[in-house]
Amino acid sequence: MTEIDIGFTLDGAPVRGRAEPRTHLADFIREEMLRTGTHLGCEQGVCGACTVFVDGRPTRSCITLAASCQGADVRTVEGFDDDALMRRIREAFSRHHALQCGYCTPGMLTTAYDIVRRLPDADAAPIRRELSGNLCRCTGYAGIVAAIEDVLANDPPAAALLPMPRSVPKAGSRERAARAGSDVASTPSALEAAALPDAASLEDAPHLTRSVTLAIGVEDAWALLSSPERIVTCVPGASLTEPSKDGALTGQILVAVGPIKAIFAGRGSVTFDADRRRGSLIGRGRDALSRTALDGKLDFVVAETDPGSCRLDLDMRYRLAGPLSQFGRPELVAEIADRLLAEVATAIEHEVRGGGSVAEAPKPINGFTLMVLALKAMLVKVFTGR
Ligand code: FES
Ligand code: FES
User: Fold this and answer.
1) What span, in angstroms and rounded, lies between the C-alpha atoms of 294 and 300?
2) pLDDT score at 205
3) Angstrom distance (rounded) from CA 278 to CA 305
């Protein structure tokens, strides 16, 4: 693949290098810039070992493309050598035995730095919540939490609490829009203009089938499934941002995986075949913050099993592109789909029985589940070479 020029500020100094567009920031920093203080653990955005600051915001460098950091201000744990607050955090880590092998420590230190600057009044509970995206395999978390509490309890220097310097791209530039998390491609006018994916282009995309039994009559189920306004209230995290018209949909869905949350906003088109009680939805969404794109197609059919109950069969194809595409792994998608489907089924039954919608924001899949799935994927790779 062709290499491209990449340049940004690394730990206060401008750097330039060449890398393939698919190169992740962590690999670029470690292998091109030879700054090995940033560690790589899971390489799937789960463990937090690779956390660095990009434009003042903690960022997982293993799932961030180096090319997307063009012109950014990147700060690794090595960029804090002379920082007074980081010195105090390091000393507190030593005092509270907050590290053992030290593998997670660069990510823990950068996350701790962010917590101390953002949450000066935090006690143990919010510190633990903020640290939930950083995994430690040996020390455990008691010492790490105690170290952060210690720093917060002992008046962190006011200067260190000032926002970190950010490089500000020119007003109105595409780069600025992208870095602000409001990529031009996800503004309403751009979304309106964006074409829907071609069904044929998803033929070879990852594929998932699921079935669920609903304890309601097939007619009631179909009446709900064929109403975009009603079904969307049964899907946790989903909403229509405009009324549906002639099968055209505009909306968004929140997906939560561990500490990472993505809001895919976009457009879709749905068609129904009432005689056969089946339908097909195709759509394209984009998470502005991570600049990840999702194309998907969902075919569904509902059939009577017994009087008073029916079965909903789903056939889904999807494609993720961008930093969060690591979460397109079949194991993770299956886990998310199973949880979502169980909640959707409960919400549909509740709605049909006149109880209103019970769908709430999606509950994130926890870090342990993510680790199990990551380990499973690694073992499959080792033993099958896939
Ligand atoms: Fe990046 Fe684990 S190596 S989150
Ligand atoms: Fe070993 Fe955290 S100190 S992984």
Assistant:
1) 19
2) 80
3) 15
Residues 6+ apart with CB under 8 A from 219: none
Contact, 320 vs 293, CB < 8 A?
yes
- Is residue 263 within 8 A of residue 253, CB to CB? The reply is yes
Residue whose CA is at the smallest distance from ligand 2 atom 2: 136
Residue 371 confidence (pLDDT):
53
At residue 140, the pLDDT reads: 82
Q: Looking at residue 208, what is its pLDDT?
A: 86
Residue stretches of the chain with pLDDT short of 70: 155-194, 257-260, 289-291, 322-332, 355-386
Q: Is 27 in the pocket of ligand 1 (CB under 6 A)?
A: no
Q: Is 49 in the pocket of ligand 1 (CB under 6 A)?
A: yes
Q: Tell me which residue has tokens 């989903």.
A: 238
DSSP symbol at 30:
I
CB under 8 Å to 320, separation ≥6 — which residues? 292, 293, 294, 327, 328
Cα distance between the two ends of the chain: 21
Q: How far is the CA of 331 from the centre of ligand 1 (A)?
A: 18
Q: Whose CA is nearest to atom 1 of ligand 2?
A: 101
- Of 22, 5, 100, 18, nearest to 321 (Cα)? 22
Q: What is the pLDDT of residue 323?
A: 61
Which numbered atom of ligand 1 lies nearest the CA of 135? 2
CA pair distance 343, 360, nearest whole angstrom: 9
313 φ, ψ (degrees, to nearest 5): -105, 135
- Report the percentage of the chain scoring pLDDT > 90: 43
Query: At 309, which amino acid appears?
Result: S
| CB 149, CB 126: distance < 8 Å | no
In sequence order, what are the residues at sequence separation of 6 or more whose Cβ sits closer than 8 angstroms to the Cβ of residue 356?
350
pLDDT of residue 30: 96
Other beta carbons within 10 angstroms of residue 54's beta carbon come to: 20
30 lines ligand 1 (CB under 6 A): no
Instruction: Tell me which ligand sits closest to the C-alpha of residue 42.
Output: 1
Query: Looking at residue 46, what is its pLDDT?
Result: 84
Q: What's the pLDDT score for residue 124?
A: 93
Q: Which of 27, 30, 36, 43 to mutate to test the pocket of ligand 1 (most atoms within 8 A of CB)?
A: 43
**Residue partners of 223: CB distance under 8 A and separation at least 6:** none
